[in-house]
Amino acid sequence: MADEQKPDGSAAAPSPGDEAASSKTNQPASPAVPAAKPAPPKPAAPAHPAPPKPPAVMVTTPWEGEVVDLLRDRFGAAITEFSTYLGQSFLIARPDAVIPIIETLKLELDFDYLVDITAVDYPKRPERFDLVYILYSFAHNQRIRVKAMIADGFSPATAVPVHLAANWLEREVFDMFGIQFAGHPDMRRILMPEEWQGYPLRKDYGILQQDDTWVRENLSIESGQ
User: Are 188 and 180 in contact (CB under 8 A)?
Assistant: First the structure.
C-alpha cells in the first residue's frame, strides 16, 4: 500500500512497529571476539651459565676511643687490629693475649658480661679457626668482640677464672668444633652424646655424612633420613 499522504501532501510518519523493524535491519553486526594469542616461547637457557658472584667483602672502619687507647697502650703489638663493621666493634689479638685482654675489659672497662664464645671454621686456612668472645658492658650499653685465629689442635687458655659462664660456653665450642681449652675444669661434650664421632660445625663433611653409625644404632634410621 502506498504511503499515506498528509493533507498537505507530506508523507505520514512511520508507525512504531516500522521503526523497530528498520532499526534491527540497519544495526551493524557485533565485532568478532579476537582469538587468544599463543604464549611467547620461553628463552633458551644460555650455553654458558654466568659464573657465581664473588663473596661480599667485609668493609670495616677504624675503631677509635677510650677502650682502644687503653688496650693499645697496655698490649701493644699483641693486638693486631681495632675495627668496626656495621656498628659492631671488634679487635683481633694473639691467642696468648686473649685472656689478659678479657680480664682488663672486665675489671677496668666494665665489660663484665660474657655473652658468648663461638668459633668459625676456615678449613683451607693455616690458622683454621676464628675464636670469638662477645662481651657486653651494662654501664656503657656497648658490645665488643675479641677475636683470635688459632690452628687446628691448638688449645687456647680457658676463660673460666675470669668469667664463670665460660665453663658451659667453652664446652659448647669443644662439642661443635673440637677446640679444647687448656685448664678447663670439665672439658667434655655438652650437646652431643659422649660417644658421638666428629664435630658438627666443622666443615669436614656434609650433614648427611655425620656419624651415621651412631644414628643407625641408636635411632634405627639412616643418617639424614
Answer: no
Q: Which amino acid is at 106?
A: K
User: CB 111: neighbour CB atoms within 10 A?
Assistant: 25
Joined grid coordinates for residue 134: 662477645
Q: What is the pTM for the complete model shown?
A: 0.72
CA-to-CA separations, 58 to 82, 84, 185, 209, in angstroms, rounded: 14, 10, 37, 31
DSSP 42-93: PPPPPSSPPPPPPPPP---EE--SHHHHHHHHHHGGGEEEEEEETTEEEEEE
The domain spans of the chain are: 61-191, 193-225
Is CATH 3.20.20.10 the right assignment for the domain spanning 61-191?
no
Q: How far apart are CA 172 and CA 179, in angstroms?
A: 9
Helix or strand holding residue 102 (H, E): helix 98-109
Q: What is the DSSP letter of 221?
A: S
pLDDT band at 222 (very low <50, low <70, confident <90, very high): low
Tell how far CA 202 is from the center of its chain. Answer: 18
C-alpha cell at 18: 516500522
Strand, helix or coil for residue 96? helix
Give residue 58's Cα distance to chain centre.
Answer: 14
pLDDT category, 189, cuts 50, 70, 90? very high
